[in-house]
Specification:
With about 550 residues, the chain is α/β, with parallel strands linked by helices. It folds into 3 domains: about 230 residues, Rossmann fold; about 110 residues, no CATH class; about 80 residues, no CATH class. Helix content is about 30%, strand content about 30%. It contains 16 helices and 26 strands. The strands form 5 sheets. It has an 8-stranded mixed beta sheet with strand order 2-3-6-4-7-8-9-10, sandwiched between helices. β7, α5 and β8 form a beta-alpha-beta unit. α12 packs across α14. The two termini are about 40 Å apart. The N terminus is likely disordered.
């Protein structure tokens, strides 16, 4: 039988032995890379605290790798369980350093959070100090728990790129979703904070997550992506937690190959012949630098390029004007009756910048006691549950007298943002977003110059746009395509510059002008949320043939 003291006892036990809830190592090795057809070096590292760590440096068949992947694996098994993934990277032209955390495989010690960070540091030092690999050629990759180890390493160093695959926002968030919250609050001290780490990184980020991940829900990957600054990409795969890179193998491989090609410096091949002599510089006046765009100029250009995508976007100041119009429904500190989609009455009081009032009221009377519970909701730029409340009363000769009150769950956003207000209705169908215009079709053409050298000219043929919501509730990511045209058959006079990339140059100026400017996205909800009168609600419902489902939603 469960007793009240049990959570505290279990929490203390969890704090003392939390590692056994987080790490599931297998000691000893059940194979080597050579048995999988891979060439490798057996490596032994020493962490900063003196613990000996075992690793493998696996080589690609390429003479010179395109990049080196530092692989931080998940919390189960050991190196031998990750040879398949290492093989994928070598087929893409990358060398791979995969290491076992302390307590895994042939590594000494016992795992804990700080220890895994020290183990990753030792692997990094081996690549940079012993193998003399430039930091910008290193791609730090982490899967599941290893995603947090990888992001911690990237936050304290400067790799060429970071890949976080199938990982959680923070281990505490993950634990809260899978274990009793009291136990987690009292007993878990590990952080493994991906969101905090990616906010500190200064390298390109690729977040990968399986849509059907049954262990770490897809929203964790979305939240990690939302927390990071540009440049960043999101790769959504089919499949679950342990098999997405197998189920959706083509997209996984192509996504990583494109990401590394875009952001990691290319390998250097030593020329076998003497380089052509450098031509004498030609004295010429540099062209005047283009003038920066204003926000209005950038916004007008973007609307002309993407009329459909921008049709529901408008400057954020619009939302403040809409809120002023909504507040105009009532005098300051006055209470008014408005109506929801089901034409039910809501008594709302106008406060400084919102209309507030109770909803979902429930009354329970037992003898001489009464309990009234519900939610206090606020309508400002967002729909917000100000608090869930419960008030207790006792019957006396003078009537019901309040004896106690409690409030929980304060200030939770539960709806979209205010997007339109008329004289009779208000729509909460908007969101505060930032936009990132990008080139999504870029054409490259290699040209052979008359002096024997080769150059590449590129132009942006088409642009697209990514959206991120203010609170990271959603994002829309776009993937770019590079179209390689065949080399021109006749030599080119390369003293003449490449053709002007007008769209690409304008895009750079537009991004500089828009920056992180917030916009209001409208149209996320079709029907109004509030009506000023019941008659207006009934007339709208009849005219637009609102279904029961329409009227039941906020």
């Amino acid at each position: 039988m469960w007793k009240p003291a049990a959570p505290l006892a279990l929490a203390l036990a969890l704090s003392a032995c939390q590692s056994s809830f987080v790490y599931f190592p297998t000691t000893g090795l059940e194979g080597t890379p050579s048995e999988a057809g891979l060439e490798y070096d057996d490596v032994h590292l020493t962490a900063a605290d003196g613990v000996r760590i075992h690793a493998w440096y696996v080589r690609t068949a390429e003479r010179e790798p395109d990049a080196v992947v530092l692989l931080c694996h998940g919390n189960g098994g050991n190196l031998t369980n990750w040879l398949g993934l290492a093989g994928v990277f070598t087929e893409l032209g990358f060398d791979v350093l995969l290491f076992d955390y302390r307590g895994y495989g042939d590594s000494e010690g016992s795992p804990d959070e700080e220890g895994t960070y020290l183990d990753a540091e030792a692997a990094w030092d081996h690549l940079v100090s012993e193998r003399r690999i430039p930091a910008q050629r290193i791609v730090v990759y982490g899967r599941s728990l290893g995603g947090a180890v990888a992001s911690h390493l990237a936050a304290t160093h400067a790799p060429g790129a970071l890949i976080v695959d199938s990982s959680f926002t923070a281990i505490r968030d993950f634990a809260m979703e899978n274990y009793p919250r009291l136990l987690v609050r009292l007993g878990l001290t590990y952080e493994y904070d991906n969101v905090g780490n990616v906010r500190k990184i200064r390298c390109p980020l690729l977040v990968i997550h399986g849509r059907d991940d049954e262990l770490v829900p897809f929203r964790h990957g979305e939240a990690i992506f939302a927390a990071a600054s540009e440049p960043k990409l999101f790769l959504a795969l089919d499949g679950g937690h342990n098999d997405s890179y197998l189920v959706d193998a083509v997209r996984f491989r192509q996504g990583i190959a494109d990401f590394v090609a875009a952001y990691v410096p290319p390998k250097v091949i030593v020329a076998e012949k003497e380089p052509a002599p450098t031509p004498e510089p030609v004295s010429a006046s540099p062209p005047p630098a283009p003038q920066p765009m204003t926000f209005d100029e950038a916004w007008a250009w973007l609307r002309a390029e993407l009329p459909e995508e921008t049709s529901r976007l408008r400057p954020l100041e619009t939302a403040d004007g809409l809120l002023d119009r909504l507040l105009g429904w009532a005098a300051p500190d006055a209470t008014i009756n408005v109506f929801d989609r089901s034409c039910r009455r809501l008594a709302l009081t106008r406060n400084e910048r919102s209309l507030d009032g109770p909803i979902h009221l429930k009354t329970l009377v037992r003898g001489k006691t009464k309990t009234v519970s519900g939610d206090s909701i606020g309508f400002d730029r967002y729909i917000t549950v100000v608090c869930s409340f419960e008030n207790m009363y006792e019957r006396t000769a003078a009537g019901w007298v309040e004896t106690g009150a409690s409030a929980t769950g304060c200030a939770d956003t539960v709806g979209h943002g205010l997007s339109e207000v008329s004289d009779t209705a208000a729509w909460y169908g908007g969101a505060t977003v930032t936009i990132s215009p990008k080139c999504i079709l870029r054409r490259e053409q290699e040209q052979r110059c008359v002096d024997g050298s080769v150059r590449t000219c590129a132009t942006c043929e088409r642009i697209g746009m990514e959206l991120d919501s203010r609170d990271g509730h959603f994002h829309s990511a776009i993937a770019g395509v590079m179209a390689h045209l065949p080399p021109e058959p006749t030599p080119t006079d390369c003293a003449i510059p490449c053709p002007e990339d007008a769209r690409g140059e304008a895009l750079a100026r537009v991004n500089a002008a828009l920056g992180k400017v917030q916009l209001l996205q409208t149209g996320l909800e079709e029907h109004p949320t509030l009506f000023r009168t019941r008659a207006a609600c009934q007339a709208y419902a009849k005219r637009h043939k609102m279904t029961a489902d329409d009227r039941a939603q906020w």
